[in-house]
Design a protein that fits this description.
alpha+beta; 1 helix
Length: 68
């Protein structure tokens, strides 16, 4: 499995052959965090933005964020 880790969150990477993008989903958490990019650099940036947004939303809602 191809994966990337950011701030303790692990994302699974899959290539979408139809759209020619890399699709990611953070694994090992109860919430759903998905993102995509046309390159590894775009994918990494999208993952960081998605995780940071998740952490911000958890903080605003007073909920604990759980890293896998």
């Amino acid at each position: 499995m191809n994966k990337m880790i950011y701030k303790g969150y692990t994302a699974q990477m899959e290539f979408d052959t139809d759209d020619k993008i890399i699709v990611g989903r953070v694994i090992d958490i109860n919430d759903i965090i998905t993102f995509h990019g046309a390159s590894i650099v775009e994918f990494e940036t999208a993952m960081q933005t998605a995780v940071d947004g998740y952490l911000f939303a958890c903080e605003q809602l007073g909920q604990a964020a759980h890293a896998g």
